[in-house]
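Team,

Forwarding the record for the chain on the shared tracking sheet. I've put the sequence and predicted structure together so nobody has to dig through attachments.
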Amino acid sequence: MKVVLSGSTGYIGSEVLTQCMDNPSITSLIILSRRYPANLAANSKAKVIVVEDFTVYNAPIIKELQTADAAIWCLGTYSGNERVDIEYPLAFIRVIKARPPGSRPFRYVQLGGAFTEPPPNDGHEGRSLWFFANGRRVRGATEAKVLESATDGSGGDFAVYLVKPAGVLPRRSAFLQRYIPDNPFSIGIGDLGATMVDLAVRGGERRVFDNLAIIRHARKICD
């Protein structure tokens, strides 16, 4: 299967990249990036597409993207850059949902966060936030819009999976998870990557994964 990955040079995205490369079900990996990662130069499984503007794709890139089976979107900011956090993923989703009728099912995995703030209901003001207020609100708006894209009746068979990890531990600290196996406040980066890749490859009935759900899904994969 062909999978598209964004944000592959980031902390979480680089782990997802490694697991995509190691997954035998993924035969082709399209990496959307602002620059060409030198470490992938000799790998025939990966194809890097250098993108200057993630809101506009030319015809050859659109054709490449629309033949994919799934995408894992790791590109984002903590500061709440609306262009990067909202416009970029929605522009990609529009490209995928413009595929010809009868196209294969598509699975889209969005990296969110445990502490994001959902948009307030109409007529209500948002609550006060003590830390990273703008970033949490913008990323919460992203999550809402991405989930909505799966239920707006357009684009055929388009499934969205939202993963919302809390603190993400590096591999050298992942042993801590063994002592607190159902910790709602942290997750090993390997478990997070495994869950995101598995959702892209196999999908599932559940669509929103909080920290505990991610841990339990990763455990189920390993069992």
